[in-house]
Amino acid sequence: MINKAKHIVFVFLSFIVQQLFAVQNGVSITRACLDKFTNELTVSYIPTSDGCGSFKYYRLYGREDATSPYVLLKQTNVLASTLMQATLPNNKKWQVYISTHSACNGIDSFNSATIYVDDVAPLAFEPDSVSVEISSQLLIAGWSTTSDKDVMGYSLFKENGGTNLLIKDTFSCFYRFNKSIFDPKGGTSILFSIAAFDSCINGGILSSYHSPPKLSISIDPNYLCNKKCTLNIIPYQGWKTDSIFIYRRDDNTNLWKYLGFIINPTLSEKWVDQVPQFDVGYTYLVRCSKISSYISSSSSLVSTKLLSISGVTPPEISSVSVNGNTIEITAKTGNIPNGFSAKLEKKDFTGNWTMVNQKTNSSGGVTNINLNYTDNSVNTSSREEIYRIIRINNCGSSFDSTYLFNSILLKNISRDCKWSNYRGWSCIPCSENYEYELLNFYAPIGSWQNTHTFNKVDDTIWSIPSSLLGLRKFKILARNLASGNIAYSNEIQIDLGYDSSAVDTILIPTAFTPEGLNPVFKMSNPAIGLGESMLFIYDRWGHKVWEGDAKLGWNGKIENGEFISQGFYIYRIEAVYRNKRVIKSGTVLLIR
Length: 592
Known about the structure:
By secondary structure, the chain is mostly beta strands. It has 2 helices and 44 strands.
């Protein structure tokens, strides 16, 4: 027999279980987004549960206005679905809801709340400011949250050749840009804008362009006179600037100093600053404050250093050297700033200085200018000439000078060579920094040869050895051992006589064998010394193949050092000795 009471309880409990786990209500719509370009509607929702297996479908209904009936837009049979999409016939302000079928009885259905599609973009708004961060020198931007509660994030843009280039979408109200995006010191324009986007990814209207204040420095042309530089300032772009504040930091203390302010600035401003010291690095910064606000923006740091004359290289005279009847001066101004000049001066017979050459730096920077000069107005055999370089700043004042440089004057007294001491190379004392070499020349043919080297600058006389005879030319060479620069004196010619006891007989062989017992073809004459004769060798077509001292002779090689072939060659010998000139010519057979 069936227990009716237990049966009633079981049916009641089953009903309760069905009520707990069956479809009890409709879905909750979270957003309805409309793409105005494609009219595609996307509805997002939280699905319901189904404990009794009564679920059949979700249906999306909508109407285009309050007077129109709802129409079926979309249906899905997937219980766990979270969105439905449909294409609307127009982009009016549609109102939608979702119906869930069915309850456990298979008849009833549940409708969600109605919602209007979101097709409205967030309102336009402006960033608070963009600024250059002092520590990192990177561009930073900040903005306040908008009053629109549906705003999800922010799109950051930069102006790029007339178009807006998306940099990044962010959910933050602050961003630090790396230099590949915005480089405050890169020389390119910084134009930043921002737009909000909502939960439907509707992008708002772009803000106006914002740019931090720009700062550059120009040095006053007369800065050595007034220590002044000019700050060129372009105020903040994006909001009205109330005031510009100027700051300076020096490298010695690394402390910032407030210099002053500019109120109600125009589109561009200038601020003239007089620095306390030369040769000290100074860094400048300007800040723009927004009108009626505590918001401000900083420029990038810009540095400069006003160099005093001690900060540039000195002028230099490399050499004052005699060349025949002229004096050649090799000189440079040294690295001088723009607008500076340097003049090469010469002391005349009265002891006054006169300018012989002058150059001015107009390059726009610091540079070294060639100041070379050839002086043709001198008698190099009668007096030494004195030169110097004077440098003049752009205030018209002389500020430094080189040492005095003189040409070397060589004279002959009896059988002595006597010369003036060379002065000028920057060495005090100079005895260990340069040397003298006395060169002699066996005129009118031959080559210069070193006769004697003096290692002390006070050695200014040399007695010609009695063994040195003939018509000779002499000159002095001064050599700077540190730099390698050289300077020559004038030349003097001295007839030193000859050895009358020497037999004056010229002997010339007719053949020689470079690889044999007589390997050199040369002239023999006791009365002729080295340097007093020249030997010229020609081939059968008259081409010269070698020349040299006739006393030293020819070894059968041509001028490039290669051996020449066997055969007859033409020779010519010129000798100047004992106040006479002798020329000999003929043929010689080279045997191999």
